[in-house]
Write a structure and sequence with these properties.
Low-confidence stretches of chain A: 16-27, 166-173, 366-377
Number of strands of chain B: 8
Strand order of the largest sheet of chain B: 4-3-2-1-5
Order of helices and strands of chain B: HHHHHHHHHHEEEEHEEHEEH
CATH architecture of the largest domain in chain A: 3-Layer(aba) Sandwich
CATH class of the largest domain in chain A: Alpha Beta
Largest interface: A-B, 22 and 25 residues
Mean pLDDT of chain B: 77
Radius of gyration of chain A: 26 Å
Number of domains of chain A: 4
Radius of gyration of chain B: 32 Å
Mean pLDDT of chain A: 77
Largest sheet of chain A: 5 strands, parallel
Shape of chain B: elongated
Oligomer: heterodimer
Largest sheet of chain B: 5 strands, antiparallel
Helix content of chain B: 55-70%
Number of helices of chain B: 13
């Protein structure tokens, strides 16, 4: 079981980038986080992207999901007829639910293998729906699910079972342990398309789930897709436990991103008003464009909010004699608290906001107050990476860097106040399209046009407009909502009657 | 001399006759005094022949009435003499300012209502008629004060004059304005509502002092006076709410499997991008001699999309019907075409 899941996990990771790789390789348009990367030296940006992509799934997310799956499977194995035979893992549509499910199952697989050894139980057969995208033709979804999950014969048996209920129920109760199987559908959103015949696959699963007690189902789903299925075909009525991935706190994000912070020696300046007035450069670090007044107002208001919050915390720190609480008021802590706050605790959004907030700039040595305690040797160790990055760059870049050799030591990655970008002006048709994208997670133009009931040409025109304003990302033919806009977009859709839960 | 006498006598007669109706009497007096000498002449003759006793017996009363009439005429002359060029310019500026304020308020309310959450769109739009009415009222009072010097007596005189003028010439206009003010509170329609009124259906895009403006599905703007609400029905689809139910009808032959049709229609509604999934979706069916009538009752996310929504549902349903070979009624069977909508 473990091998099979690991194999699929590797394959998924190869096929789909889950974080920065998604947008960093977008050949046509620069999305908001890409702009931040574009202002860094190329080699440094690439190194940063690699480091972010190497980040594992957040341990807390993985722990919550794997514990829930493990306990549900244990209950089912003990009492297959009484216990629920399915679990649904729901995550935000910008998170890679398939990655979360697969990664958690790897942990669960090891635990189950241990359990099987101890109890001499036969190994649990694993059937994985190893898709990385929705089948091109939505009408074939049901057939493909049957084929991939080895279910074609079972449907007939199930129909027979319905006609001979008592006798068959007895036989199911006495089913041999070696006939039991674990069925994994990493992303339920790939199993349907919002069209007249696009829900047939789910109808099929809906019939199968409650009847077949010899199988345990692990289903992953995007939040928006799940809400849609709940309100339309009442899919939740047929499922067992439903768990939602946890919202991450500032502390969670800090510990998760600490390898990147340490590797690149990211500097977190004080954002309190009193500190800003001490340094004029930091006072005017806002990216304000007079041609975009709404964006400028949003930028300034977020900056002011962050500064005021920071000042209040700083004031508390002075008044609070308790040393244990003082540690919670470092600029880095404040930064990650704010990051968790604006990203609604979603790792995918937070990591992109983190990149967006990074600046490669020169800072005055006197500002390095947080590093005062560090020894000179520690400082030089951390700067080795930046030097290595410079060395691995192109010749022209190296020459350029050499010219600035004297000042190079003062250039660092500085984490400015993380800010949510303002949503662009969106028409009603744009909202329909964006909701459709969030409903299905990611999709092609053809699938999107079927979901909207419009012609592909019309949808393509609209998509290109939305890409221009940075709210939609496109990699090859696959479209996705830009995670940095997710929190605000989610609220916007929720306020406009769409079935979506605002974070 | 003759002219003066005739005037005096006519005034005495009229003053006596209308002594108990001060408003109308005065205004009518002014009118006769200034313009209707022929009338005075007839009164003069009449007086000489038949009413000598009247002049003698009520000499004092006539003298008083004549004095009052003369005073009123003087006041009118004074009022008219106060209409100077600077005042006219001032009035034009006030009217221009009021126009600018109304247009600004319209723009602010409309653009704000389109930007806020859809739930609040209609609420924001309700400010428009109130603000318009307020601005117009203030403007009219300011203008009257400018020209008529609104003392107590002037108000009474002017009100009386206006009442008569409205009674004869602007009856319908006044009726519409009053209906508009009543409508603000009774709210048979509000800005943003989708109403059927006076044989027209559309969205109320403007609530004026005299009339509303409807934008019809064919993009025509229809002006309907408020007075229509006095004695006619107004059918309001959403009554201040954002949601308006859309009923889409499907006609099928008796051979069509109703369960299959029902499932298709539910599925079609659930998968339309326009459908408001938080509100109920219902399929109802009725039997007719020509076949079966299915009605899909559902709500679009935005009432403005109702026609697009109905079109989307119809197109996709027809595709499914065609795919499953569901038969439509034959034309020669259509004998109850007109009563199709009578059964809910």
């Amino acid at each position: 079981m473990v091998n099979r899941i690991e194999k699929l996990g590797k394959w998924l990771l190869e096929k789909r980038g889950f974080r920065v790789a998604w947008f960093a390789k977008d050949p046509q348009r620069q999305q908001p986080p890409e702009e931040a990367l574009a202002n860094m030296p190329k080699a440094l940006a690439e190194k940063l992207i690699d480091s972010i992509n190497d980040l594992p799934l957040h341990p807390r997310e993985q722990k919550v999901v794997s514990e829930a799956i493990e306990s549900a499977i244990s209950r089912w194995r003990s009492h297959p007829e009484a216990a629920e035979n399915s679990i649904v893992v729901v995550a935000d549509p910008v998170s890679s639910i398939s990655g979360i499910v697969i990664s958690s199952l790897q942990t669960v697989g090891s635990a189950i293998a241990e359990e099987e050894k101890d109890s001499d139980q036969p190994p649990l057969k694993v059937n994985l729906l190893d898709w990385v995208e929705r089948p091109a033709d939505a009408r074939t979804i049901q057939r493909q699910i049957e084929k991939k999950l080895d279910l074609s014969e079972d449907k007939k048996a199930q129909l027979d079972q319905e006609t001979q209920s008592d006798q068959e129920t007895q036989s199911a109760e006495e089913a041999q342990p070696d006939s039991r199987a674990l069925m994994v559908i990493p992303d339920l959103c790939w199993c349907f398309l919002r069209s007249a015949d696009g829900l047939d696959g789910l109808d099929y699963l809906q019939d199968l789930l409650p009847c077949d007690r010899t199988r345990f189902w692990v289903l992953g789903s995007g939040m928006v897709g799940w809400e849609y299925l709940k309100s339309t075909i009442k899919f939740h009525a047929y499922c067992g436990k439903i768990i939602t991935t946890p919202k991450l706190s500032g502390e969670d994000l800090q510990s998760w991103l600490s390898p990147v912070v340490e590797q690149f020696d990211v500097y977190f300046p004080e954002t309190g008003l009193h500190k800003r007035f001490q340094n004029r450069n930091h006072l005017f670090e806002m990216d304000v464009d007079a041609d975009k007044p709404i964006e400028a107002i949003s930028e300034v208001s977020q900056e002011i909010t962050a500064s005021v919050q920071s000042s209040v915390r700083s004031l508390k720190k002075r008044l609070e004699p308790d040393e244990s609480k003082q540690a919670d008021n470092s600029p880095q802590e404040i930064y990650f608290e704010r990051l968790a706050d604006i990203s609604d605790g979603i790792a995918e959004v937070a990591v992109q906001m983190f990149i967006k907030s990074l600046r490669y700039c020169q800072i005055k040595p006197k500002l390095e107050t947080s590093k005062d305690k560090e020894s000179e040797s520690e400082k030089s160790e951390k700067k080795v990476i930046l030097k290595q990055v410079s060395e691995s760059g192109s010749e022209s870049e190296t020459k350029e860097i050499e010219k600035k050799k004297d000042t190079e030591k003062e250039f660092r990655l500085v984490a400015t106040t993380p800010k949510l970008p303002q949503l662009p002006e969106l028409s009603q048709d744009d909202l329909y399209l964006l909701y459709s994208l969030m409903l299905h997670g990611d999709m092609t133009i053809i699938a999107l046009s079927k979901s909207l009931g419009d012609s592909p040409n019309v949808v393509n025109n609209q998509v290109q407009m939305l890409r221009n304003v940075g709210i939609v990302e496109q990699q090859a033919s696959v479209l996705k909502v830009n995670p940095v806009h997710y929190p605000r977009l989610c609220r916007e859709l929720s306020r406009n009657n769409f079935i979506i839960e605002a974070p | 001399m003759y002219e003066d006498k005739s005037h005096f006598l006519s005034h005495s007669f009229l003053g006596h006759s209308f002594s108990s109706h001060s408003f109308l009497g005065h205004s009518f007096l002014n009118h006769s005094f200034l313009n209707h000498s022929f009338l005075s002449q007839s009164f003069l003759n009449h007086s000489f022949l038949n009413l000598d006793w009247l002049a003698q017996s009520s000499g004092n009363a006539a003298e008083n009435a004549g004095k009052a009439a003369s005073d009123t005429a003087d006041q009118t002359r004074q009022l008219l003499s106060k209409i100077t060029a600077p005042k006219v310019i001032q009035a034009l500026l006030i009217v221009g300012l009021a126009y600018a304020v109304i247009k600004t308020v319209d723009w602010v309310v409309i653009s704000l209502s389109e930007r806020v959450a859809r739930h609040d769109r209609l609420r924001v739009k309700q400010f428009q008629p109130f603000v318009r009415t307020l601005v117009m009222t203030v403007t009219v009072i300011t203008l009257m004060n400018l020209f008529l010097n609104l003392s107590r007596e002037n108000v009474l005189a002017v009100t009386g004059t206006i009442a008569v003028a409205l009674g004869f010439a602007f009856k319908d206009y006044a009726s519409s304005i009053i209906a508009g003010i009543v409508g603000l509170f009774e709210a048979p329609y509000r800005v943003g509502d989708r109403v059927a009124i006076a044989g027209n259906y559309g969205e109320v895009i403007s609530y004026g002092l005299r009339a509303i403006r409807l934008k019809t599905p064919s993009d025509n703007v229809v002006t309907v006076p408020h007075s229509h609400i006095w004695s006619n029905t107004v059918s309001n689809a959403n009554m201040g709410e954002l949601e308006a139910q859309v009923v889409t009808q499907f006609y099928l032959a008796h051979e069509a499997n109703p369960e299959e049709v029902e499932n298709i229609l539910y599925r079609i509604a659930y998968t339309s991008k326009y459908t408001h999934l938080k509100l109920p979706i219902l399929v109802v069916m009725s039997e007719h001699s020509w076949g079966s009538l299915f009605k899909l009752r559902s709500y679009p996310l935005d009432a403005r999309d109702e026609f697009m929504y109905a079109t989307d549902l119809t197109i996709r349903a027809k595709k499914e019907f065609a795919k499953r070979n569901l038969p439509y009624p034959k034309r020669f069977d259509l004998v109850e075409a007109d009563d199709a909508g009578a059964d809910g």
